[in-house]
Amino acid sequence: MSRASYLFTSESVSEGHPDKVCDRISDTVVDAYLRVMPEARVACETLATTNRVVIAGEVRGPDSVTADKIEGMVRDAIRDIGYEQDGFHWQHAVVEILLHKQSADIAQGVDAAGNKDEGAGDQGIMFGYACRETPELMPAPLYYAHRILKRMADARHAGETHMLGPDAKSQVTVQYKDGKPIGATSIVVSTQHLDADLTSHDVRAIVEPYVRESLPDGWITNATEWHVNPTGKFVIGGPDGDTGLTGRKIIVDTYGGAAPHGGGAFSGKDPTKVDRSAAYAARYLAKNVVAAGLADRCTIQLAYAIGVSKPLSIYVDLHDTGKVPEDKLEKALGEVMDLSPRGIRQHLNLNRPIYARTSAYGHFGRPPEADGGFSWEKTDLTGPIQKAL
Q1: pLDDT tens for each residue of the chain, 389 residues long
Q2: How far apart (Å, rounded) are the C-alpha atoms in residues 376 and 286?
Q3: Which value, in Å, is the radius of gyration of the alpha carbons in the chain?
């Protein structure tokens, strides 16, 4: 039996965090190829350190996406995030591009040929999760940790505050009573600031209004602990202060530790890679199960083998909150959606340049967008699931 009363904590990091800078750059490369060739294949990793960016990986796509074009997009991305500092500047950083052709051995296993459908780009397990803790059906600690940083970033980009830098982290500890989130017992915000004379007290005065806007009314009380820049000065930030790598914030990207993770990162991968597309599909299915009123919590696991089109297994856990048998739901989900790599991409229309925007503030719990971004957050499958049951 699950506990009814407890504390749970999740963290988030901003778009200017070194690892998120790398996720943004890697997904910018993915978008560059998909914009020209929707069936392009991209596996792109980025490293960023003091005034240097190194991009490496495997691609199969049009020659029109040149190294010069990629470098220009990388510099634009860094400028958009807000880095114009001596140690990391969009204009002065050295950008090294080491992309090469995709392995023929991988391609022959993944590509469709004859009677063989397109296979998964790799083996692996992917998880999706949804719950009733927020209107977006996301775990509350992660959802509000994201909101704090997104609100601070919006304020920085809008010029509301000139004192904050792009690099920031947040952490929210939520108190649960009878299984429901009721308040924040502690809040941690560490943010880069551009004035070296600012104290932790000064920084709290800047960020506290944005934190309070981001959390539900009544969640912050006199008993809530605040830790704002607890180590003191935070002037040197971003890749100048800490080397960044693609794919190191996978728990931030998903459910904040409230649900299992298969271990594969999303950023830098085109949607033939089931690390990305099947994780989106699993979230899509889990969200629709909860939205359909079939459970208050839902975890879904999908498993794949490289070169094999159909999932090896579909597993559903409703955490003792379900209104239908889990084995019947597993069967129904396999009927309402084609969970082959091709089927997922077609159902969610994933072969589009929609990925740079996913690189910060979570891949899940975001509203579906007019151009098809975050299509996996739609709840248009509730009717078909109910009908299949």
Answers
A1: 567 899 999 999 999 999 999 999 999 999 999 999 999 999 999 999 999 999 999 999 999 999 999 999 999 999 999 999 999 999 999 999 999 998 766 655 566 545 456 778 788 999 999 999 999 999 999 999 999 999 999 999 999 998 999 999 999 999 999 999 999 999 999 999 999 999 999 999 999 999 999 999 999 999 999 999 998 889 999 999 999 999 999 999 999 999 999 999 999 999 999 999 999 999 999 999 999 999 999 999 999 998 888 999 999 999 999 999 999 999 999 999 999 999 999 999 999 999 999 999 999 999 999 999 999 999 999 999 999 99
A2: 10
A3: 21
Instruction: Output the CA torsion sign for 258, 263, 266, 272.
Output: negative
Does the pTM of the predicted model rise above 0.85?
Answer: yes
Instruction: Find out whether 211 and 144 touch, Cβ atoms under 8 Å.
Output: no
What is the Cα–Cα distance from 284 to 280, expressed in whole angstroms?
A: 6
Q: Helix and strand tally (H, E) in the chain?
A: 10, 13
End-to-end CA distance of the chain: 27
Distances in Å between the Cα of 93 and the Cα atoms of 41, 45, 126, 265 are: 27, 17, 36, 26
Distance of alpha carbon 120 from alpha carbon 110, whole angstroms:
6
Contact 78, 71 (CB under 8 A): no
Report the C-alpha gap between 329 and 124 in whole angstroms. Answer: 22
